[in-house]
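re: ur question from earlier - yeah i can do the single chain one, its not a big deal. heres the input i used so u can compare w yours
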Amino acid sequence: MPSVAYSTTTPCSTPLPAIWSPPRRTSTVGPRPSPPDGQPVALGLHVIGDARLCTNPLYGRGCSTGVWHAHLLAEAIAQHPTDLHAQADALAESTRVNLYPWYQALVRTDRDARRVAGRILAGNDDDADDPAAAMRAIFREGLLPALRLDAHVTRAFFRNFNLLTAPDALLTDPDVMARVLAVYQDREQRPPEPVLGPRRAALLAILAP
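and the output i got, formated as tokens:
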């Protein structure tokens, strides 16, 4: 490609022989460096970022939670500058309160997405008997349209998306949910939502006729 030729010619750079991708795209939680009794083993060693809580990169939350975790570590050190044990305890507690709820929420989202994908791959695209189907319908036909129609909902959504509120803040805010449900109840009076792309079977037919 001419546009990047300057960066791929020797001696400017050496192209890699292969492209490596992450082997797993799952959410994982790393251990706190402590034995079963909860006491830290290596005082002064603080595990943060993806080494402590790694979420599915699909969500794009790794940098946000990593920077947040570094801030929590700085706070723990500032609060206990000479007490390494207290630093470890403070960081563990702030991680549990601030970051672990996001990890749990994204694990639940992944689990739901896998269940839906499994049903589709099995040829069953009808989610009438799925207990989470109602919430997905409210998301599609309530929340998404409300983001275009209601500035209050939009602000609340982006505050949540940027980790400024708790993971369940939208669902537990009665004003936001009342606005979302009002849009959902009006779904029959609106034109159908535009189709954003083909269904899986149609896409496969297009790609591999």
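The two ends are 29 Å apart (CA to CA). not sure if urs matches, ping me
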